[in-house]
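User: Some background: our group keeps a shared notebook of sequences we're curious about, and every so often someone picks one and asks for a predicted structure to add to the entry. Today it's my turn. The entry only has the sequence so far, pasted here. Could you supply the structure so I can complete it?
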Amino acid sequence: MSTAGRNGRHETFWDKGKAELRGPFNDLILEKMREWGINSLEEFSRRVGIPRGTIYYLVRGRQTKAGTWVKPNIDTLVALSKALDVPLHELVYRLEPSAPGYEYRFEHHIPILGYVGGGPAQLEEIGDRTVPVRVKGSASHLVAFKVRGNSMCAGKRPICDGDVIIVNTQDKGHPGAIVVARLDGNSYVVKKMGPDGTLYSTNPEEPNGPPVIPVDQVAEIVGRVVEVRSKLD
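Assistant: Of course. Here's the predicted structure to add to the notebook entry:
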């Protein structure tokens, strides 16, 4: 997103080096601006019918002399709710996270990228292409896979055939963590990470895939498994 500086130079408003952006709705505003194909807060202000100064305060965050954060009034929140296509109560919960119902405030639908543990994800069609999750803030770092096979169907929290796993792509795991990895050839597996990066099955007697995968066969660690949705739940 960009604005014109005092000297007329085109500058990037969203550059963190230009301003410390503390607004509670920044991700929603930026996402909507990208959707509309606009690159300035002035244009966003015109489109949504909210004064430019108010939009700037929403993005930068505004504090009183006493150091408390100034909250937008209800008219601004209603206009923003309509413009962003976000329920009004979700905006309110961002301003008042202690409000009742906070734990249910954001339900995102994240993509199911494909099957894991049984071959290339693109070879078979999956009925449900998304899965709902409830998280505080953005869910852009989360993806899901549907499990094929029982090579991890053992231990304290077994991951079995038909389960759906939620993966944090910002967390590449650690020894002992359960991760999803992309192998050479673009197949995906879910395994337990060893101390040297080797991947292991928790149910090695299951004939679905190799029980041990050396590091040199791993093209990428997609992320750490943070939730298992069992088909039996």
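Suggested note for the entry: Confidence is low (pLDDT under 50) at residues 1-12, 119-123. The chain has two domains: 2-100, 107-229.
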